[in-house]
Amino acid sequence: xxxxxxxxxxxxxxxxxxxxxxxxxxxxxxxxxxxxxxxxxxxxxxxxxxxxxxxxxxxxxxxxxxxxxxxxxxxxxxxxxxxxxxxxxxxxxxxxxxxxxxxxxxxxxxxxxxxxxxxxxxxxxxxxxxxxxxxxxxxxxxxxxxxxxxxxxxxxxxxxxxxxxxxxxxxxxxxxxxxxxxxxxxxxxxxxxxxxxxxxxxxxxxxxxxxxxxxxxxxxxxxxxxxxxxxxxxxxxxxxxxxxxxxxxxxxxxxxxxxxxxxxxxxxxxxxxxxxxxxxxxxxxxxxxxxxxxxxxxxxxxxxxxxxxxxxxxxxxxxxxxxxxxxxxxxxxxxxxxxxxxxxxxxxxxxxxxxxxxxxxxxxxxxxxxxxxxxxxxxxxxxxxxxxxxxxxxxxxxxxxxxxxxxxxxxxxxxxxxxxxxxxxxxxxxxxxxxxxxxxxxxxxxxxxxxxxxxxxxxxxxxxxxxxxxxxxxxxxxxxxxxxxxxxxxxxxxxxxxxxxxxxxxxxxxxxxxxxxxxxxxxxxxxxxxxxxxxxxxxxxxxxxxxxxxxxxxxxxxxxxxxxxxxxxxxxxxxxxxxxxxxxxxxxxxxxxxxxxxxxxxxxxxxxxxxxxxxxxxxxxxxxxxxxxxxxxxxxxxxxxxxxxxxxxxxxxxxxxxxxxxxxxx
Length: 666
Hints:
EC number: 3.4.21.26
Radius of gyration: 25 Å
Distance between the termini: 29 Å
Oligomer: single chain
Number of strands: 39
Pfam family, one: Peptidase_S9_N
Strand content: 25-35%
CATH architecture of the largest domain: 3-Layer(aba) Sandwich
CATH topology of the largest domain: Rossmann fold
CATH superfamily of the largest domain: Alpha/Beta hydrolase fold, catalytic domain
Number of helices: 12
Shape: globular
Catalytic activity: Hydrolysis of Pro-|-Xaa >> Ala-|-Xaa in oligopeptides
Helix content: 10-25%
């Protein structure tokens, strides 16, 4: 394959005693004539390759069929009214609906009606306590730089806003529904309806990632801020101080633990924390004495299961956990925490998003999904102890028969790591995809995927590796895959690939690596450290230049996870695995597809551009290195049609380069 020319410049930075070459720095500027010309040539190269991929239309058709299951969310109750999201097969985006006491369902926010081009997404929403007003956030082109508006629910009329620069901002309404706390430009502010946003009081002026919540009665404000290895937490009694100047008392600061706090209807302060408990525990305290020395265990740490969330329904406490990535929900006595039993779940999958009525009651709603079950909503009745379906996924789809096996294997340092292997019944090596993430404490748990199922249905193997850096085994598992221990993640992934080969699932010439965002970094590390293990790779929205990642997108916010090149020791960690800096001339690299998105404000496409140029220059083999760039979408939510097209292209590319026959050729 003949690649577009990309000049290698003799740029070398001398950083803390390291000589760091950066020959493709010129590709960081998307608007320079050189980058524009190079990008246009890469677009043409990808289009030509994609057009020749066997079964591309068949992959797209099957992904679209399975995407037709749609989505539905658990209800959020306010003032006798419920709010929920739903997307049918005919809809490009989830629509926010409401149902009032009269039982009539009505659409409140439909992105497709607001933007016929499908480039507008609903990023976040929060009803007022009485359900009469709705704060909601929209962004365009995938940039996630949301504008916040307030709607009168009864009429659909916008009564406040737009307020810009509200990226996924939390909103905490005051009980009278006339004002709310929110985050703008990474600062906590108080907005009173009908007043200019520029006049909003800045409550907390430090730029951080903030979380906000107000108790059901509007008295207690909890504020959290992400910090090194955990978060800082404050509590304010709004009955004793004004909203403009809340008397924020420190609950925890600088403890390296993750704690979420909320004051319940019984007046107790509930604290879900990893402090002294890497897998989590639930504590209670008097809000007047909220510091850790006054916390009392209500539900202690489980040595094998990671605590997730809790909900209170009457005198019953529900606590969700994941045991080696499989969900369970325990039923406990509210006063003592004593375990009474378990919530019946539909299977071995993922349950979450528990909701209750703010005024109390005996019902709890939650979502459930697994590898072959589209997400649906279930209702648990604390009086009867029964679970019943509440709202199924809106579309009916036929899913393939498959088996799911959890495999435990040792990593390079002997640490046991788990992997879930999905396949149709049969034996013998097959084309396989190994997927991973391994970062930010996020867990890979069983879920329905219109990307995974077509691959398995066509006879392939799909494996999800639950790597260190994730949250599958708690806070310590996360800590063992970040900062100076980041290499553990890549070692885990390589060990997973080797285990798939050893167990006869696949062979290196039929194995592909796949990951997105931080998972794109993982794939970049895998193909530069162990190119011999993989035939193909998809590296989506990736971080790849770890020396300069802090200079773009949300990079500065990720220093607690990766470290900083400004620190001499941490630069050494980063250089040790930075994929862009590990590309070596003369290596036969796997067939590689890098995907980027024009509206991505989290991970700048510059990473993929530079890596693409480096790999195209370096590879000694005939397997292609290609860049798929898509404008008008970003890192996160997008129209269903766009998501279908991306998934189909990735599947077609990986199938072509691992030998899997497409759906119409079986």
